[in-house]
Amino acid sequence: MSDGSSSPAPELVFVGSKPFEAFGALGDLELEFEKAEVEVLKYQIKITAPIYERRNPLTSRIPGFWPTVLEATPDFDQHVTPQDVPAFAAITSLNIIRPNPDEPRDFIVEIGFDKERNDLFEDEILRKRFWWRTVEGKWSGLVSEPVEVRWKDNKDLSNGETKRVYEEWKAKKDEREGKGKGKEKVVVKGKGKGKAVSNGEEEKKPSLEERLKGGQPSFFTWFAWMGKGTEYGLEGKEKEEGEGEEGEGEEEGDEDEEGDDLFNHGDELALTIADDIYPNAIKYFLETVTGDEEIDSDMSVSEINSEDEDDDEEEEDSEDDGIGSSRPKRDVTDDSEDEGENEGNKRRKRVKK
Question: Which residue windows does the record flag with biased composition (Basic and acidic residues) (predicted)?
């Protein structure tokens, strides 16, 4: 019998080479599973892309569709500051593009805004591209490049940081491609303090906490997120056309750099948008407008409207009854049977999330 105390995990003792051979074989199988998942994703994208093309213009015609979806997404609000809310209210479209048939894990996030209602920045569409990058034996995951957000005067929610990151990255990329003025000096202008390089020496930048003054970064700092080893850029002939080895053209040690991102875990947010918010947008929207967290994906709009009308009629009947109404009460047994029948009907209309 157990005395209630937790016993230590048994120590694994391997005798001979068979267990190690099994571990090696399991590792090989994991690689095969990953390749299979990529093939499944390729097929899924192929058959769903035309459907999303038909869906996107319809969702853009529904007022407040995407702001409602984003608000309904679990934990998404933790990335949104109160200052971001006016821009989120002006979102009119959200689209995920998979531009690389050979690597379906690459994608582009496009967010469109109503220019008349968005008074924070000039852009009507913000696009951010993500590449799936693998460094053999070390890590694999998403990387990106900073996007220039053209903030309006005195409206920059990043206090100049997104501009600083973009211009610094652009200067380094141009220098690497031979477009810069050499390695003498790179100075990035903007409200934020950049990194000045003079005679091979780098000036120490203030920490992220110091630059943001301890506050939560705006959602729009996500567009400056890069990830590991991408400070010199990923766009290029080899990357675009898939030529060359992984990491070709990167400086030695770049793949180990964590980067100095304004937005933590930008890859996780990108995957949330691409793999959860975008495909499940209708579900999140209907959950909000109907107040039902278990929506049947097979229900038509007419069925939903019919349910709403029935609910309205029930509310009117209850109002007619009022407090102390003389209307006779229904038999308890009948009421219980009807309630069970109604619940059964509702369950048949629902599916799992």
Answer: 201-211
What is the CATH architecture assignment of 22-284? 2-Layer Sandwich (3.30)
Domain boundaries, the chain: 22-284, 292-348
Distance CA 126, CA 268 (A): 18
Number of neighbouring beta carbons within 10 Å of residue 240: 11
Residue 108's φ and ψ, nearest 5 degrees, are -120, 130
Average pLDDT, the chain: 73
Quickly tell me which residue has 């531009």 as its tokens: 99
pLDDT band at 345, cuts 50/70/90? very low
Residues in the chain: 353
Three-state SS string over the chain comes to CCCCCCCCCCCCCCCCCHHHHHHHHHHHHHHHHHHHHHHHHHHHHHHHHHHHHHHHHHHHCCCCHHHHHHHHCCCHHHHCCHHHHHHHHCEEEEEEECCCCCCCCCEEEEEEECCCCCCCECCCEEEEEEEEEEECCCEEEEEECCCCCCECCCCCCCCCHHHHHHHHHHHHHHHHCCCCCCCCEECCCCCCCCCCEECCEECCCCCHHHHHCCCCCCHHHHHHCCCCCCCCCCCCHHHHHCCCCCCCCCCCCHHHCCCCCCCCCHHHHHHHHHHHHCCCHHHHHHHHHHCCCCCCCCCCHHHHHHHHHHHHHHHHHHHHHCCCCCCCCCCHHHHHHHHHHHHHHHHHCCCCC
Phi/psi at 86 (nearest 5 deg)?
-60, -40
d(CA 353, CA 351): 6
Count of other CB atoms within 10 angstroms of residue 19: 12
Q: Is the pTM of this model over 0.85?
A: no
